[in-house]
Amino acid sequence: DIQMTQSPSSLSASAGDRVTITCRASQSISAYLNWYQQHPGKPPLLLVYTASRLQSGVPSRFSGSGSGTEFTLTISSLQPEDFAIYYCQQSYTTPLTFGGGTKVEIK
Amino acid sequence: QVQLVQSGNEMKKPGASVKVSCKTSGYTFTNYGFSWVRQAPGQGLEWMGWITAYSGNTKYAHNLQDRVTMTTDTSTSTAYMELRSLTSDDTAVYYCARGTYYGSGSYSLDYWGQGTLVTVSS
Questions:
Q1: How far is B46 from chain A (nearest CA, A)?
Q2: What is the rounded CA–CA span in Å between residue A54 and residue A35?
Q3: pLDDT tens track for B40-57
Q4: I want to staple B48 with a disulfide (CB 3.0 to 4.6 A). Which of A7, A90, B8, B36 is the partner?
């Protein structure tokens, strides 16, 4: 199975900050990497697919990049509604696997 | 608009089975597939498997393939996930999610149900 490792596991930031989350795959997954946001008690929400393509309706302050084994999700200017947990997920092969999550908290 | 509405929370005893439904609307059911994903309390996301709505082809996670069955009913645009021989380790929120292919293997879960809490306790 492909292991997905996210860093950091949590971070504290203020509104307006630029935030970057990293996801590493245990083997190359080309660009088959998605990012999701999850608020407490809610289902995940797709933010970015195929590493860098923004899902319809997602604010442009979110962006994704990377290929191979290293990927990043960047929030250019953190908004209050962005405090949540973020997960990466590979779709290169089954079983689909998720990273352990990055919790973005208010500083 | 696309909607996935899951059945209600369940309380089960160890050894029992549970069947969760996911009724869809707002799109052509047979043009997509589904993944089922579960999340234990305070934990991350675990993919359980997927099913193509049109053909009913399935692929299950290794650790669940002996206990899980995923099906679809095209007449009601509903997907189902049944999990048998439940233990306390199966206590989790279970999500259905629509799978979208973008070509060349790129696949994402673009719409999710609200989640169904399954609690396994004696």
A1: 7
A2: 10
A3: 999 999 999 999 998 999
A4: B36
Find the CB nearest A44 among B100, B107, B112.
Answer: B112
B4-29 pLDDT, tens per residue? 999 999 999 999 999 999 999 999 99
Instruction: Give the pLDDT confidence of B85-110 residue by residue, as tens digits.
Output: 999 999 999 999 999 998 777 899 99
Provide the token pair at B80.
């189902």
Both tokens of B87, joined, read 């233990």
**Out of B47, B100, B115, whose CB is closest to A96?**
B47
Tokens matching residue A67: 């290929």
Distance, in angstroms, between B107 CA and closest chain A CA?
6
Low-confidence ranges of chain A (pLDDT < 50): none
The answer to whether the CB atoms of B109 and A44 lie below 8 A apart is: yes
